[in-house]
Amino acid sequence: MAEPLAQPFWETTPLDRMTPDQWESLCDGCGRCCLEKFQDPKTGKVDYCWVACYLLDTQSCRCSDYDLRRFLVPDCLQLRPETVGQLRWLPRTCAYRRLAEGKSLAGWHPLVTGDPTSVHRAGISVRDKAISAAHVHPDDVAAYLIKPRLW
Q1: Secondary structure E strands in 11-143
Q2: What is the Cα–Cα distance from 138 to 123, expressed in whole angstroms?
Q3: Is omega for the bond preceding 14 within 30 degrees of 0, making it cis?
Q4: For each of the chain's 151 residues, which pLDDT tens digit applies?
Q5: Helices marked H in the chain — which ranges?
């Protein structure tokens, strides 16, 4: 008789108990959190635009200098288990947000599929959509607002 398969760590381990490697593996590589955002101070509503942080490699959707990102981009936030549930600007597709809300990972997530490109094939990532902030004048960022709001 075959033994039952063990449940994946993200279904059994609370966010605040995950190892650093487990925590990092939750990132699906969509790049959405690296897009410029505008928050309405009155309503709190967040709108995204297609302009991405200059450190985001818009093809791989990964940070080009992950270890130094918070030094190079001072407003880059490090996601933490104790705060991730409060960051309403995280996309609804974000694994950190989904798990903090008691949901499961999406079926296209690389941890579920075993394929790191599944996030791109599912159309979730910003690959072929985002433009680097290195190529956009700061005064023009708002012209790249995403309409309609996708997430």
Answers
A1: 35-39, 46-52, 56-57, 62-63, 131-132
A2: 27
A3: no
A4: 666 668 999 999 999 999 999 999 999 999 999 999 988 888 888 889 999 999 999 999 999 999 999 999 999 998 999 999 889 889 999 999 999 999 999 999 999 999 999 999 999 999 999 999 999 999 999 999 997 666 6
A5: 9-12, 20-25, 69-72, 95-100, 110-113, 118-121
Distance CA 87, CA 57 (A): 23
Structure tokens at 110: 């690389």
Q: What is the pTM of this model?
A: 0.88
Residue 146: both structure tokens together: 């995403």
In degrees and rounded to multiples of 5, residue 78 shows phi and psi of -95, 120
Query: What is the sign, positive or negative, of the torsion defined by CA atoms of 64, 67, 70, 72?
Result: negative
Which residues neighbour 133 within 8 Å (Cβ) at sequence distance 6 or greater? 36, 51, 52, 53, 54, 141
